[in-house]
Structures are given as structure tokens and as C-alpha cells.
Amino acid sequence: MSEPKSDPGEKPNPRPNSRPQRQSGNDRRGAIAGLIIAIVILGVGWWLARDLTAASKMQDCLMSGRTNCNVIEPAR
Fold first, then answer.
1. Do the Cβ atoms of 73 and 65 come closer than 8 Å?
2. What ranges does the record give for the region Disordered, renumbered to this chain (predicted)?
3. Cα of 60 vs its chain's centroid, Å
């Protein structure tokens, strides 16, 4: 087998396996968007869990026959 011939005026590539330079902002934009979406989903899930827990406690109180199930916040 013979080596491929190159043109005499063509410069040899010093690093043939090197990758081209990327713009630093483009590859992080997707990761940041994913992180923001994950934080929003976690926040909504946390809020929903607290709300459903409070509703469940209220229903348990009412189903047991009590009449004073309202939560009274102490004055500060």
C-alpha cells in the first residue's frame, strides 16, 4: 500500500485529530435551561405535596366528626 499523495502547496495539518473550537455559550444554554426546568418542576411538586397533605389532614379531621378543624395561626 502506498501513502496518499498530497499537493506540494498544501500545508500538513499538525493535529489531524483536533476538534474545531466551539462557542462556549451555546453548549451550556441547554444545560442551564434543563436545570431551570428541573427546579421549577421540583418547586411545583413540593408546593403540591404540601397542599395535598393539608387537604388530607382537613378531611381526616372532618371525617372523624370534629367541628373545629380550622387551623388557627397564633398571633406574633
1. no
2. 1-27
3. 35
69 with 62: CB under 8 angstroms?
yes
φ, ψ at 58 (rounded to 5°) = -65, -45
Reading the block at residue 30, the C-alpha cell is 441547554
- Residue 34 and residue 41 in contact, taking contact as beta carbons nearer than 8 Å: no
Residue labelled with grid coordinates 499523495: 5
Q: What is the pLDDT of residues 34-68, one digit of tens each?
A: 999 999 999 999 999 999 999 999 899 889 988 88
Yes or no: say if 69 and 58 are a contact pair by the CB < 8 Å rule.
yes
Whole-angstrom distance, CA of residue 14 vs CA of residue 20 = 13
Q: Please give the DSSP secondary-structure letter assigned to residue 72.
A: -
Quote the pLDDT of residue 52.
95
Q: Is 61 exposed, middle or buried (0-12, 13-18, 19+ CB in 10 A)?
A: middle
